[in-house]
Design brief:
By secondary structure, the protein is mostly helical. Helix content is 69%, strand content 0%. Helix 2 runs antiparallel to helix 3 and helix 6 packs antiparallel against helix 8.
Length: 179
Amino acid sequence: MTTAPAPSPTWEARSTELWAAIDEHEPAAFRALVRELVDELPQGHPLIAFELACANDSTGRPDRAAPLYRAALAGGLDPYRERRAHIQLSSTLRNLGELAESIALLRAERAKDPAGLDDATRGLGDAVDAVLALALTDAGREREAVALAVGALARHLPRYDRSMAAYAAALVAPAPGPH
């Protein structure tokens, strides 16, 4: 799959500015502003579907967001937005009750070799873990969810990081059998 050409830096800046102001708009008005922005992109550009998915998702319309995320992923996003789309689609699927698919997508993201990712894309790893922890919780796998969340947090602690990582692993370690 090829990646679509990046939009201009000016377009990117306007998109960032619009998203920073999401709370200043009613949901329908915000979606309309996103539509105006993406209409500037070449027809069929995967960012059109991605931005519209994000806008629908962020304004309470996950049922409309899911197919748009899938279209954006099929269209060839840059690695950073591809990871964001996987995270956000997984969160949307979780909200729609599609827990098995949500968990599977997030596990696939976690399985990617971090050495093959750029810094920004690799930096989304904790977001993958956070959404996976929520999906696992909804699936009734709370111990696994807590282990994942504590393990992610441990990487950021100035002290106790080693202990917390061990505690996280212990939450999901098989119980010792009889001797």
